[in-house]
Structure formats: structure tokens, C-alpha cells
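Ticket #4471: structure export looks truncated?
Reporter: QA, pipeline team
Priority: medium

Steps to reproduce: submit the single chain below to the structure queue and open the exported record.
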Amino acid sequence: WICLRIHGADALAAMMERTVDVTAALHARLAAADDFEPMHRPQSNILCFRHLPAPVATWGDDEGDAFQAAVRERYNASGEGWITATVLDGRRVLRVTVINPATGVGHVDRLLDGLRRTGRMLLDETGP
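Actual output as written to the record:
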């Protein structure tokens, strides 16, 4: 109530709309990339996706799920950022919830760059 009283409904709505817009921008980037797969079109500020660099895209479901979990764990441990995961339609997926209205498209780009670096490191460690 205090936030509503101080900022007003229009300001709070604008903040929420910004998070939805940033989530839509993330979806557009994922859909355009050959190494990510968005799992759905976001209806709000939540989006699930998979990181599927070339070799992972050909792996079986269990191995692909394990890769998603490993990417998340390694990325979070790096201190570069934080991402969650869940199971959607039986598959392990990465999950973003844009909550902070100060989050911008640049943050989304850094997230994807960080996930790519993390994925490459994991693939380099496992070998061909």
C-alpha cells in the first residue's frame, strides 16, 4: 500500500510494463539465436529457455537436461549473475524473471554472453 500511495498506480504499472518489455526483448534475442531455444512466448516477465550450442542440440534429453543444470550451476557460481531453473514439459530449462524495473536490454545481452561463455567452458572441459 505504501508503494502504491507514494508512487501511484500509473508509475507502478509503468515499472511492470518495463519488465514485460525487457522480457519480450530477451525472447526476441533467444528466438534469433542459433544456440538458444525459447520455450514459450512470454505473457509477463517470466521466460523459460534452453541453451543449446551446436553439440548439445544433438544430445539426448537426459544429457541436454544435465547441460542446462551445469550451465546454471557454473554461471551462478561465477558471480557474474544469477539464473534459476525449472522443469517445463519434462525438460530442464533455464528461467528468467525480470523483476527490477531498472533491468535493461544491456543486462539481457550480458546474461546471454555469460551463459554462452559458461557453456563453452563446460564443453571445452568435456572434450569432443
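Status: closed, not a bug. The export was complete when the record was re-opened. Leaving a note from the reviewer for reference: The CA atoms of residues 38 and 71 lie 16 Å apart.
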